[in-house]
Amino acid sequence: MESHFPFTVDSCGAGRHRCHRRRAAARVLRANAPSIARTGRVRGGAGYTVKAPLHCLVTAGRAPISWPHRLDFGEGDCQVARGRGSRAEQDSAVPAEAAAETVADPAGETAAPRGRFAARLDGVEKTYGKGAGAVHALRGITLAIPRGSFLAIMGPSGSGKSTFLHCAAGLDQPTAGSVLLGDTDLATLDEAQLTMLRRERIGFVFQAYNLLNALDVRDNITLPLRLAEQSPDGPWLDEIVRQVGLADRLGHRPSELSGGQQQRVAIARALATRPEVVFADEPTGALDTRTGRQVLELLRHVVDAMGQTVVMVTHDPVAASYAHSVIFLADGQVAGEMRDGTPERIAERMTHLGEW
Ligand SMILES: Nc1ncnc2c1ncn2[C@@H]1O[C@H](COP(=O)(O)OP(=O)(O)OP(=O)(O)O)[C@@H](O)[C@H]1O
């Protein structure tokens, strides 16, 4: 491996210096560096596992990211896993395409077709307070969220989930780094523009449904449109109401509905403006198990059937298992990703986060 080549090849169980595949793996990586940077995929490298610092991507025009990165070469593609040392193993089920598209350092970001990502965070840090009492709630989050995906954010208490959500949704400003919604850099907006953006381009679903009891279901759902002075898109609203199963409740007040129905109204309201991302904060926290499952099925459905993008913060591995992908936070950093995780696997991964 030439010294200027920035990958470190270190695997196959034979150790860095004895690995007979090392040279070949380095050749494959070098030949594919531009394509790795663009798409996260590597062709022709089956059988190699490579630990590589992300500096490799700097050579192809990517911003530097300091933490380790691993490429698992599978059937002609690579899988991109993140974490420290062998912990990355736990994420090795992340499909190459998904990993390249979703998680920290979206390798294809600069070459990505316009509009492929609903939102992107790049090196986002958030520090509360100053000096000795400063709390570093986020320590450099880099994440790209593809349109039409359902992402769950999990982590121990205090790991930064709420701070992440607030920064990603434009409710709070990062101390460093950037947040983009589509192509809009939130740092370029003043407070009035941010309010407009949150109203028109982001949907929110909270644990406490935050419905207005003075309004009936129909008016609660269309409230964001009225605030944004947008005329209702009839067919879209009909579709939302049909999907959330509230067609026969439109004239009711929230207090006349069950908790699950109220949360479905909140989801319909979040969708009314066709937002680019719906941020959901513990959306099933106040619901019983069965009703909670129905709400999660609905969230998954609005992604799969309606092409919406949902980012959900949750403590619940069962809830997270409804997402396409789970991002684990620990101590303000991305500690890994799991795709299509079962509740058992997600719970198991959570138990290791404290050690991360
Ligand atoms: N306004 C604030 N001022 C100071 N510290 C804060 C503030 N908000 C959050 N923090 C701190 O930032 C860290 C991350 O908090 P955050 O609420 O994002 O974590 P979380 O993962 O959502 O936690 P939980 O699961 O308990 O809700 C914590 O140490 C918290 O005490």
From TrEMBL:
Q: Carries keyword Phosphoprotein?
A: no
Matches recorded under CDD domains: ABC_MJ0796_LolCDE_FtsE
Extract one GO cellular component term from the record: plasma membrane
Q: Where is the ABC transporter domain?
A: 119-356
This protein's UniProt keywords: ATP-binding, Nucleotide-binding, Transport
Q: Which InterPro entries match?
A: AAA+_ATPase, ABC_transporter-like_ATP-bd, ABC_transporter-like_CS, ABC_transpr_LolD-like, MacB-like_ATP-bd, P-loop_NTPase
UniProt-annotated stretches for the region Disordered: 83-109
Q: A Pfam family this protein belongs to?
A: ABC_tran
Q: Name one GO molecular function term.
A: ATP binding
- Report biased composition (Low complexity) as residue ranges: 91-109
Q: Report the protein name in the record.
A: ABC transporter
